[in-house]
């Protein structure tokens, strides 16, 4: 159980604009105790108060809890296949600054750039950054070592980006996007949320009451490699019939009898958005149905009450929502069909992974502060 100080910081982080009176109610403590905890956190430069707007309710005026101007910050970094980005994030999730750029898939060069950016931000913010959250396009071990097969990065030590970081959290981008949707996006309030990100692969995560299901070795969420696809199709992973091969650009090219383009993600995005020929529209509908059918299988299996889609999933929902929905409903067990868990576009879009990196870093950091 977190201490009441930690719980109050967690509440102020989760609910920006929270008043001291609301915090007292959330924590189940009296107003006197809340005032005392806030005073202690304020003396420790962890939280500050500003007068709250009058609520019209009876009782003494309260205050709004805000980040302390000298308080801790986290650095949230997101690495994609082509780009990098580092945000400085204060309590409550607001980004104060961002640096970003492109990289040429050479780890040593990228690591130098990222380490320099981390050092610059620590300097610019007078040492206030105390944690680093990292979103990466690959799998991460408990010892923060990264494997990103498509970038040819193997056994990379992510700690070199900030060797003496008080807190370092590194996770797969799809898991972090899922965490962000549950904390700040379309899945806030869901008991068990399923997030799926369709891009070069199909990944995601199950978030169980706010906790991302990481798996025994930290690599859960490879939903694209469940055999919901055509058993005649071999997946680059070595298996046959992987779901991912039925919902991506390779599936569209195959359905149209065309060669698979090198950048099949850009190809799929373009085709889904602009399909005009009858055969192209039919291919998009087929892929949309394959997505909906697989979602039904997952919802039946994990009993999610809400599903969010990112990446090409958003494009498929926009272009062929009825086909996604029809296949989804047809695949749901009958008792779920009266009230099917909603399938929604992710609210945070491309910001999901970096927002998730900030959330996971804050979650870990808050446990160490108060
Ligand atoms: Zn596979």
TrEMBL record:
Gene3D superfamilies: 3.30.420.40, Winged helix-like DNA-binding domain superfamily/Winged helix DNA-binding domain (1.10.10.10). Coiled coil: none annotated. InterPro entries: ATPase_NBD (IPR043129), ROK (IPR000600), ROK_cs (IPR049874), WH-like_DNA-bd_sf (IPR036388), WH_DNA-bd_sf (IPR036390). PROSITE patterns: ROK. It holds the Pfam family ROK. PANTHER family: BIFUNCTIONAL UDP-N-ACETYLGLUCOSAMINE 2-EPIMERASE_N-ACETYLMANNOSAMINE KINASE (PTHR18964:SF149), ROK (REPRESSOR, ORF, KINASE) FAMILY (PTHR18964). Belongs to the ROK (NagC/XylR) family. This is ROK family transcriptional regulator. It comes from Microlunatus spumicola.
């Amino acid at each position: 159980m977190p201490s009441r100080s930690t719980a109050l910081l967690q509440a102020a982080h989760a609910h920006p604009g929270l008043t001291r009176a609301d915090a007292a109610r959330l924590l189940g403590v009296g107003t006197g105790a809340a005032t005392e905890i806030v005073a202690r956190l304020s003396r420790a430069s962890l939280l500050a108060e500003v007068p709250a707007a009058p609520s019209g309710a009876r009782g003494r005026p309260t205050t709004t809890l805000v980040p302390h101007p000298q308080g801790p910050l986290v650095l949230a970094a997101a690495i994609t296949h082509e780009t990098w980005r580092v945000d400085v994030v204060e309590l409550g999730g607001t980004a104060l600054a961002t640096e970003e750029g492109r990289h040429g898939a050479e780890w040593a060069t990228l690591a130098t750039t990222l380490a320099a950016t981390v050092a610059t931000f620590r300097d610019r913010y007078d040492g206030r950054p105390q944690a680093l959250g990292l979103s990466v396009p690959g799998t991460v071990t408990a010892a923060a070592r990264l494997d990103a097969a498509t970038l040819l990065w193997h056994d990379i030590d992510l700690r070199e980006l900030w060797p003496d970081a008080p807190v370092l959290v590194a996770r797969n981008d799809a898991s972090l996007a899922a965490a962000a949707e549950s904390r700040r996006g379309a899945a806030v309030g869901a008991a068990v949320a399923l997030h799926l990100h369709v891009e070069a692969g199909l990944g995601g995560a199950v978030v169980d009451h706010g906790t991302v299901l990481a798996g025994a070795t930290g690599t859960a969420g490879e939903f694209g490699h469940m055999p919901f696809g055509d058993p005649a199709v071999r997946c680059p992973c070595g298996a046959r019939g992987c779901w991912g091969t039925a919902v991506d650009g390779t599936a569209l090219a195959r359905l149209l009898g065309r060669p698979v383009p090198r950048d099949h993600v850009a190809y799929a995005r373009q085709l889904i958005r602009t399909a005009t020929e009858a055969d192209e529209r039919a291919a998009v509908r087929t892929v949309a149905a394959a997505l909906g059918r697989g979602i039904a299988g997952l919802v039946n299996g994990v009993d999610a009450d809400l599903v969010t889609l990112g990446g090409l999933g958003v494009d498929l929902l926009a272009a062929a929502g009825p086909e996604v929905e029809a296949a989804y409903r047809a695949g749901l067990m009958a008792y779920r069909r009266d009230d099917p868990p909603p399938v929604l576009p992710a609210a945070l879009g491309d910001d999901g992974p970096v927002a998730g990196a900030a959330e996971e870093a804050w979650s870990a950091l808050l446990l160490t502060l108060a």
